[in-house]
Design a protein that fits this description.
Blueprint lengths: L4 E3 L5 E3 L8 H20 L31 H11 L10 H14 L6 H84 L1
Antiparallel strand pairs: 1-2
Amino acid sequence: MRKPRFYRKDNMIFEKKQDRRCSQGNLTRLFVVGLLVISFGACASSSTVAPGKESARGIAGGPVEKAGLFGKPPADAMMFNEGVSWLGLKDKPADYAKAKGIFAILAQNYPQSKWRPQAEAFMQLIDAIQSLQAKHLSSQDLAEKLKQDQKQFKKDIQALISKLEVENAGLVQENEKLRKDIELLKQLEVQLDKRGKMLR
C-alpha cells in the first residue's frame, strides 16, 4: 500500500505514518514536563508586604498575598474565612461582634485585597442585623410592658366591678327598704282615712 505524502509550506515532502500510537518515550517526556510544571508552581513564593509598609516600587497600600499552587492560602483569605465562620454555622454559634471585628481588621490591614469588598459588605449586613435585633428587643420590652399594663388594667377593672356589685347590692337593699316603707305609709294613710270617716 502506498503511503500518503504531505507537503509542508517549504514544499518539503514528508510521509505520515499510519500508526498514531504514542510511544513509551513520548509518554515519559510528557510526564516529566508535567512534574516540572507542578514543581515550579509549588516553589513559587507568595509576594507579601508587611501591613502598613510600602512596597519596593513605592506603591502605598496594604499587601495582596498570592498563594503558590500547593502553598497555604494567603492571610487575607484565611482572615476572611475566619470572619465568615463566625456568622453562624452548624457547629459554631453566630458571634456578629467577632465577625465584624475580623472583617474590620481585614479591611484596614489589607486595603488592596480582593476580599475587602466582601468584608465591607458583611460588616454592613452585620450592622443591619444588629439594628434589627435591637429594635426587636425594644419591641419585646414594649410588648412585655403592655402585657403587664394589660394585666394590671384587668385587675383594676375586676376590683371596680366588685366594688360596683357591692354598692349595687346595697342600693338594691335600700330600694327594697324604701319600697316597704312606702307600702307601710300607704297602709297608714288608708287607716287614717278610715278613722277620719268614723269620727264624722
